[in-house]
Write a structure and sequence with these properties.
Pathway: Cofactor biosynthesis; FMN biosynthesis; FMN from riboflavin (ATP route): step 1/1. With 155 residues, this protein is an alpha+beta fold. It is built from four helices and seven strands. The protein has one domain: Riboflavin kinase-like (Elongation Factor Tu (Ef-tu), domain 3, Beta Barrel). A hairpin with a 5-residue loop joins strand 3 and strand 4.
Length: 155
């Protein structure tokens, strides 16, 4: 992705129900129109950055953009794992995301265990990267301070 950071927001919708149940790694999912509005130069893969729900605090996150080959998805998705424990689900809330870096391409896995292990490794690497000064400053971006409109893609 040439234009990082990349900012987008949209309503949290129900996904496939796999993040929490099968992986133990809950994700917040964007609706199709947010996915469809991604710039053409956004390659599939695993990225990291910052996210907030509604008017809440800004937290570290990892996000998968793509087809999730392990699950053989037929629709491209954006699935965000926010590194924070929420007390309850937040379907219908506005999720604001700032993508600041790329971790790896999307790939298939031989087992659920190897997928979970890779995601956990992605989370650990994202935590380290997001502590770098050039990424920390994005956490304070005005994007997270402004009143939340329903949809915004780009920057």
């Amino acid at each position: 992705m040439r234009h990082l950071p990349y900012f987008c927001r949209g309503e949290v919708v129900r996904g496939f129900g796999r993040g929490s149940k099968q992986l133990g790694i809950p994700t917040a999912n964007f609706p199709e129109h947010v996915v469809d509005n991604l710039p053409a130069d956004v390659s599939t893969g695993i990225y990291y950055g910052w996210a907030s729900v509604g008017d809440g605090d800004v937290h570290k996150m990892v996000v998968s953009i793509g087809w999730n080959p392990y699950y053989k998805n037929t629709k491209k998705s954006i699935e965000t794992h926010i590194m924070h424990t929420f007390k309850e689900d937040f379907y219908g809330e506005i999720l604001s995301v700032a993508i600041v870096g790329y971790l790896r391409p999307e790939k298939n896995f031989d087992s659920l265990e190897s997928l979970i292990s890779a995601i956990q490794g992605d989370i650990e690497e994202a935590k380290k990267q997001l502590d770098l000064p050039e990424h920390l400053k994005v956490k304070e971006d005005n994007f997270f301070q402004h009143p939340k409109s329903k949809i915004m893609n780009g920057h």
